[in-house]
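Structure first, sequence second, as always.
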């Protein structure tokens, strides 16, 4: 298709070198298909990817620290179900999934940096039975960034101090419960940014 487009452009511009580029692209494509593509490879659109297997249980936690006053948390929902609520530890994540989970916490002075979700290289296909329950420390003021992915989620932030909240809803079905802004010492309205995508949000 790309080669055909370049060919049309070259014809319209009366440019032989542009049309030559399209010929080279066709030749390279045929060479790749002949020499490098595994036999039996079949392309479909949209891509259909095999299931990755059975879900395995996981549990991660980082302890509460009295020195931590604020933090940034990035949550990736991936595929499946997940929830976020206030908790007693700095951060926890537990559930079951066939995907490789990501749980990273760093503390510098009185600021925490938390990343919870699934490793970017772990998604090889759709599945069922993937779920993750996440808690964040209720004694920390959080800058919270959630990427829902393709999921069903419940974010109960009613008891979690949040100074700023960003949500990329992706292709999802979710519920968000926000607490009062003065819980985090924010004067006025809580800064909230949402991208709905193809989703249902309550």
């Amino acid at each position: 298709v790309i080669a055909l487009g370049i060919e049309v452009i070259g014809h319209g511009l009366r440019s032989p070198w542009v049309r030559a580029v399209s010929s080279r692209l066709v030749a390279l494509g045929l060479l790749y298909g002949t020499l490098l593509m595994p036999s039996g490879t079949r392309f479909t659109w949209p891509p259909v990817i095999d299931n990755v297997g059975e879900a395995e249980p996981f549990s991660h936690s980082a302890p509460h620290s009295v020195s931590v006053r604020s933090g940034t948390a990035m949550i990736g929902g991936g595929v499946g179900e997940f929830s976020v609520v206030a908790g007693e530890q700095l951060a926890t994540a537990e559930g079951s999934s066939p995907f490789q989970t990501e749980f990273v916490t760093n503390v510098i002075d009185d600021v925490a940096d938390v990343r919870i979700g699934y490793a970017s290289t772990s998604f090889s296909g759709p599945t069922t039975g993937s779920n993750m329950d996440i808690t964040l420390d209720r004694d920390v003021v959080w800058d919270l960034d959630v990427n829902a992915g393709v999921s069903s989620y419940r974010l109960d932030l009613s008891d979690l101090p949040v100074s700023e909240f960003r949500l990329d809803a992706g292709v999802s079905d979710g519920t968000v419960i926000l607490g009062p802004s003065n819980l985090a010492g924010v004067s006025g309205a809580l800064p909230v940014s949402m991208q709905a995508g193809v989703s249902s949000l309550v």
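Margin note: The mean pLDDT is 76.
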